[in-house]
Amino acid sequence: MTLLSVSGLAVARGGLRTLENLNFTLEPGQALILRGPNGLGKTTLLRTLAGLQPAVDGQIAADPDSTAYAAHADGLKSALTVTENLRFWAEVFGGDGIDQALSLMNLTELAARPAHALSAGQKRRLGLARLMVTGRAVWLMDEPTVSLDAASVGLFVQMVRGHLAAGGGAVIATHIDLGLAEARVLDLTPFKAAATRSGTGRAAGFNEAFG
Ligand SMILES: Nc1ncnc2c1ncn2[C@@H]1O[C@H](COP(=O)(O)OP(=O)(O)OP(=O)(O)O)[C@@H](O)[C@H]1O
To answer: Which NCBIfam families does the entry link to (predicted)?
Structure first.
């Protein structure tokens, strides 16, 4: 069963369309890498796929409970320990597998440390480990390897491969070569929206007032 199907999708940020006419599917076991220059709309697309903002046009077909989003920011609870952060997320999503997540992202020795006392790369590893305890099939990831050293990028790729092997899917916006050769690459550059207003949001209101 297809995990995610996008047809005729247009997305907008701050009332401005960023990308349009997007069509793609994500099948179990597939990873899709989103490419494109800064400001093109990769984050906007991921946020829309995650259901954090509405599509401007077109359709997204996915089980509403199938996606988990790892944003640019780590979004950790700084006073909670590494394990407590994972437990929190497992409870929110109804997932499990905390020990496996700790082990896979090389966090076991840091399990009792509060998140505020982690390095940037350690925080990032924890932010990514959270995906594993969500139990969600579709992982949406925005620049997941920022702050990671080469060894940690390797752990991340291993984690994604395990997820794909279990029938999951992944959509990853990244500027680097992850070494995930089996992933499909979607260059979003041709889908840059013509400079039109979305008809919703602040910019549209601004237009009405001053246009
Ligand atoms: N909060 C916001 N309000 C209004 N416009 C925004 C906001 N955040 C981003 N934008 C604009 O929306 C457009 C798309 O931004 P987005 O973050 O989706 O791009 P991106 O492809 O992820 O970029 P990068 O590679 O730099 O992360 C950009 O032109 C950006 O300036």
So the answer is: ccmA
